[in-house]
User: Fold Saccharopine dehydrogenase from Thauera humireducens.
Amino acid sequence: MKRNVLIIGAGGVAHVVAHKCAQNNALLGNIHIASRTLAKCQAIIDSIEDKGSMQQPGQLKAHALDAMDVEATKFLIRATRSQIVINVGSPFLNMSVLAACIDTGAAYLDTAIHEDPAKVCETPPWYANYEWKRREACKDARVTAVLGVGFDPGVVNAYARYAVDHCFDQVESIDIIDINAGSHGRYFATNFDPEINFREFTSTVWSWEDNAWKANAMFEHRKEWDLPVVGKSAAYLTGHDELHSMSQTLGVPNIRFWMGFGEHYINVFNVLKNLGLLSEKPVRTARGQEVVPLEVVKAVLPDPASLAPNYTGKTCIGDLIKGTRNGQAREVLLYNVCDHEACYREVGSQAISYTAGVPAVAAAMLIADGTWDIGEMANVEELDPLPFIQLMNGMGLPTRIRDAAGDRLLDPEREVGFSREQRKTASAR
Amino acid sequence: MKRNVLIIGAGGVAHVVAHKCAQNNALLGNIHIASRTLAKCQAIIDSIEDKGSMQQPGQLKAHALDAMDVEATKFLIRATRSQIVINVGSPFLNMSVLAACIDTGAAYLDTAIHEDPAKVCETPPWYANYEWKRREACKDARVTAVLGVGFDPGVVNAYARYAVDHCFDQVESIDIIDINAGSHGRYFATNFDPEINFREFTSTVWSWEDNAWKANAMFEHRKEWDLPVVGKSAAYLTGHDELHSMSQTLGVPNIRFWMGFGEHYINVFNVLKNLGLLSEKPVRTARGQEVVPLEVVKAVLPDPASLAPNYTGKTCIGDLIKGTRNGQAREVLLYNVCDHEACYREVGSQAISYTAGVPAVAAAMLIADGTWDIGEMANVEELDPLPFIQLMNGMGLPTRIRDAAGDRLLDPEREVGFSREQRKTASAR
Assistant:
């Protein structure tokens, strides 16, 4: 049992995380929000108060913190008696915040893989370059660290684990598909930090094919998928965090990630990339100023959080899994559909932030009640997916399953006989 | 009679100007090249020596100069005994260099209108905002200042004057058309300073219609022109320097400027503009750096001078003039066709730099021999076009005429009885 949550970051995902923590503060205890800019933390607190999101009266506090400073972060963890840290700041912070958790014994959660600002799309598997180097340190300190527990990575990893354990004897392929069929009404915007968004696509696209890494180019492979609610949607083979753990943990020979892009997005992306404006390497202007082009592109694009009020439409994200069961070929789609406008009504965010933030809070709750408090580092597919899926069904992120038997809510109790009582005592592995 | 030339700037146009001055140093005397970066001046001198461009042995020297510093510029003008200054540096320098010329008595030439880095596309006529404010000062100091004497502005102004004086009783419209049908083989590049190039198109497009200014939007008006050599070419109504003097000096009711753009250029331009990346106003990055987006775009684009070695194809720039002669409707096209590869063979530049640089040197020669040494400020259409056109015919920029009588070289001697001897004594106005 762990209590009191420190949220690192004050962007769009942190906004959702804070709201959802507030909605569950009977279990989670005090809520602290820390980022470099105190005013951004305070704006989130104001929004929680406006929406009346607190489940019961409790502490909700803003802090100014440079989370690259490990000692300052440790001090804040201790001062706030936080036993759970949800890191939804920049992915450049992961290793610093993780270090602070290891030293203080707090559980660590994040929603995206660590990145070095100076490198893009490094040698796979990416987790081995940073986070996994601290596996032993977590184990020695009995620190629970759940990596990448947003929607993708995160929920899609749990879907894969669920499919491997409960739907198939043998899984042949997992295609993770992420479609945002929403519209923000702006000329161009990214749905999360543009710097991080573009960095995903500016170099080699790694996929896992026949049990080996395959290097592709961005927008090299296009496929049209027919998905529930959002319908036929074009998506492109993309490099993404979850492949770098799932390829190592699940024993599935083919794992691919597909991201939906419209022609307009691709055109803008290609222009910026071909001109060199998505580069993370500094250039020198005629006036002698050293500037990272990507940081300037980020500065001119809309703040993703500003898109929420006018966002319409829905997202569909899920895993299409193929394999065999009892000698028969089988195909299962596990997915969630999320509505931008409903998210905005509930917490003042768009669905991209919402789908990333809610799973992190579900994971925090599973650590708080002991279910996932494993005292070591894990990626999501290494944890029992049943309590996670069941909990999110009641938190605004219901999981649906589409297979030969039809399309329905995935109720772990009905599908595999997993009950709420079992969840309370479920072992993490 | 004036001698010794100081060239300000060391970009693509300065390169051509220096080569052409070298080819005519018997008349022009010593040649000095000054820019902030000494190495760029020296590279031009090396190239002149490689090509053997010097007409006769003479002085050819590089200087480091910040031409925003009027006192430093005056010092250099005096130290080098330069009586002619050809300003082909950034258009932000014009007023400073002009001030240095007024104080030292040196003749002043430039090829583009003055710009304030903080302003784009100001109230027309643009010359009235800056250069024309120094008209009286030039007259008082008996300083010859020829504004905008590149190709466009410059030669196209002379063409207009030629048409008004020698081809029509009444001119109804002048359409200046600038088509670059060449190919540089790069994903995207501008043919001269990207900062200046984009600034031309990022705000209101002014044209002169029915004796009044008309405000249009960029890419609002498209027209296909059928031109010699380059054939059918799409061009768009664009704001441009020469309209801002010709509208005031020629008494022609309609004067428009059309620039040729391919679909690809327009797409890249629109993406950059719509994202705010062509803005001259600073933005603040997440790291707190103040950056002008346009300066970063300039920094990532190819140096226009670097395009020259692989540039193929031709440019066609000219004036299509409509009006009446002896009560009959008449249409005349005055134009030049310039070949990128031929320019590179001759001076190591592409045709865009070449067509801008050669006229400035022709003008310097007309000042040196007294023909255009008028002791006051003028735009090109206020000067006699005949000696200018005749001189350029022998300098690599021949003028052709297409009218009802056919398509032929415009030989002022044959067309209007203007002889070389007359040129020597021609009065400037």
Observations:
- Chain A has 16 helices and 19 strands.
- Chain A touches chain B through 28 residues (CB under 8 Å).
- The longest strand of chain A covers residues 314-325.
